[in-house]
């Protein structure tokens, strides 16, 4: 099988053009492609449409790209931890499409599965339904939602092999696996990289056929978004 390992992530990320549609994996700050985001900052690419469950925080994750005005539009679900995002939204500087979290996940999954549209009860009777088709099934109203696809998916896994097969840990599985299937080009970064054949096929979450490039990242910060401790 083709060896998909790259050693210069900046060089590959630099191929992303202005105006591209990106999917960025992660859940909160868990499982985000830290090195790919850093490479985007270096590249200076602009007018990006970013599809991500969240918008990072002011000084980490996608929040860094918002600060440098490299993002034109966010398609997200949870954005409550980023003051710069809030400021740009309220001032009209940033286009935003807010989507119920389950609907966002399913729209991405549908994009990867080749399903152009589906019906869901989430959002019926709210602003989410404006301009969208509503149908009744078995006495209940459902909203038609369309798939989401991207030019590039930037995902982060715990372990991968040289053929691009990936294994995720914990909540990093919430969005990374489906995003890896829904883009024209998928760039994966991993904490551990092993030779092809060393991963147990029964535990692979993303088959290598979906991955175009794999990068062995080091020194991940893995910042915690909110830390709650018990008062003794």
From TrEMBL:
Cite the PANTHER family for this sequence: ACETATE COA-TRANSFERASE SUBUNIT ALPHA, KETOACID-COENZYME A TRANSFERASE
Return any one Pfam family short name.
CoA_trans
Can you name this protein? 3-oxoacid CoA-transferase, A subunit
Statement: the UniProt record of this protein carries the keyword Transferase: yes
Molecular-function GO term, any one: CoA-transferase activity
Family from the record: Belongs to the 3-oxoacid CoA-transferase subunit A family.
Q: Does the keyword Protein transport apply?
A: no
What is the scientific name of the source organism?
Raineya orbicola
Q: What is the lineage of its organism?
A: Bacteria, Pseudomonadati, Bacteroidota, Cytophagia, Cytophagales
The secretion signal range is none
Q: What's in the keyword line of the UniProt record?
A: Transferase
């Amino acid at each position: 099988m083709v060896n998909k390992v790259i050693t210069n992530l900046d060089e590959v990320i630099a191929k992303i053009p202005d105006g591209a549609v990106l999917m960025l994996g992660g859940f909160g700050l868990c499982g985000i492609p830290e090195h790919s985001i850093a490479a985007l900052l270096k590249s200076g690419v602009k007018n990006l449409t970013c599809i991500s469950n969240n918008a990072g925080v002011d000084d980490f994750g996608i929040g860094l790209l918002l600060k440098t005005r490299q993002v034109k539009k966010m398609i997200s679900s949870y954005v409550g931890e980023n003051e710069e995002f809030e400021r740009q939204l309220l001032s009209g500087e940033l286009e935003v499409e807010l989507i119920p979290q389950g609907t966002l996940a399913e729209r991405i999954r549908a994009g990867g599965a080749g399903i152009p549209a589906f019906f869901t009860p989430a959002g019926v009777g709210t602003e989410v339904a404006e301009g969208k088709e509503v149908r009744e099934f078995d006495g209940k109203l459902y909203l038609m939602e369309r798939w989401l696809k991207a030019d590039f998916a930037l995902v982060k896994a715990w372990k991968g092999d040289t053929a691009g097969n990936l294994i995720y840990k914990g909540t990093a599985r919430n969005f990374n696996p489906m995003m890896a299937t829904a883009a024209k080009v998928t760039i994966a970064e991993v904490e551990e990289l092993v030779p092809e054949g060393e991963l147990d096929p029964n535990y692979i979450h993303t088959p290598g056929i979906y991955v175009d490039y794999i990068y062995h990242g080091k020194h991940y910060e893995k910042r915690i978004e909110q830390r709650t401790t018990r008062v003794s």
